[in-house]
């Protein structure tokens, strides 16, 4: 019964995905497939900190919930880790958990362990991780190929209660509500204040430039609805791209600017994505920057 309840809860989130009806149907089918499925873990898995000072057998820990996230080496590894976000999320989970003992299982399959250790040290990420060089976890479970659906909230029997990356604010809210035992239902949808937004452009070309020179650009957002516009989060596809924006609610008719800074790590042609989460029907919104760092 608990599993069936969370299927209904999670399907509510489909209203937050700005995609076609066919894609929503595909997401819904995938969610129904995974909710209630038991995640299998490789035997004798240990989690260690990057400096080797700590090792944890998370799989033997007793807890009502656990979260497992999987990152492989097929995409830009530094872009997909989002370590600062996970540090904040771990603190949020600890703050709402009654037993303060919900393990978060990080399975990383990095293209280069040395680069991973550099990233962990750069962000002072001391939470234990598992380096899964043989990709054993994925081979046991055959995860969805979409990185947005390679994170799972599990019950004490390792059965999936919810699926999705909590970088998405609505997914994070769902995870935290389940952990707190809050009841979710269709009535919650009406509590979300929805407005409308227009953007002056969806993509920016920064042209050609010396790769050592920082590049700046901007997107202008206007609240075209009749309710305050709230930017809940902005994520980027790479650590080389940062975005500054106001966290204050934008009143109807008002405008605000997303200030984008790109700092190349090497000479390259780039196409980077900025994902904007806000209280609109078409959230999340996708913006792009491109150019040639020479």
TrEMBL record:
Transmembrane segments: none annotated. It holds the Pfam family DUF1573. This is DUF1573 domain-containing protein. It comes from Bacteroides muris (ex Fokt et al. 2023).
């Amino acid at each position: 019964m608990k599993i069936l309840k969370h299927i209904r809860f999670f399907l509510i989130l489909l209203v937050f995905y700005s995609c076609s009806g066919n894609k929503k149907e595909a997401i819904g089918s995938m969610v129904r497939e995974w909710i209630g499925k038991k995640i299998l873990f490789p035997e004798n898995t240990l989690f260690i900190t990057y400096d080797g000072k700590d090792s944890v057998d998370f799989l033997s820990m007793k807890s009502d919930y656990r979260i497992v996230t999987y990152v492989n080496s097929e995409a830009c590894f530094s872009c997909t880790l989002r370590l600062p976000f996970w540090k904040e999320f771990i603190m949020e989970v600890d703050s709402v958990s009654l037993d303060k003992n919900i393990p978060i299982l990080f399975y990383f399959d990095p293209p280069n362990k040395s680069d991973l250790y550099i990233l962990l040290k750069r962000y002072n990420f001391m939470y234990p991780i598992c380096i899964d060089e043989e990709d054993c976890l994925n081979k046991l479970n055959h995860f969805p190929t979409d990185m947005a659906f390679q994170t799972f909230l599990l019950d004490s029997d390792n059965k999936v209660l919810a699926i999705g990356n909590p970088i998405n604010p609505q997914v994070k809210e769902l995870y935290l509500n389940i952990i707190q035992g809050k009841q979710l239902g269709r009535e919650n949808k009406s509590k979300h204040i929805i407005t409308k937004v227009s953007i002056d452009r969806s993509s920016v070309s920064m042209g050609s430039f010396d790769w050592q020179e920082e590049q700046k650009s901007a997107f202008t957002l206007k609240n075209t609805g009749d309710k305050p516009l709230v930017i809940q989060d902005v994520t980027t596809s790479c650590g080389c791209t940062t975005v500054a924006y106001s966290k204050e609610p934008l009143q109807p008719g008002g405008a605000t600017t997303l200030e984008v800074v790109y700092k190349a790590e090497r000479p390259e042609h780039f196409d980077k994505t900025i994902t904007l989460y806000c209280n609109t029907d078409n959230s999340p919104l996708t913006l792009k920057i491109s150019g040639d760092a020479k």
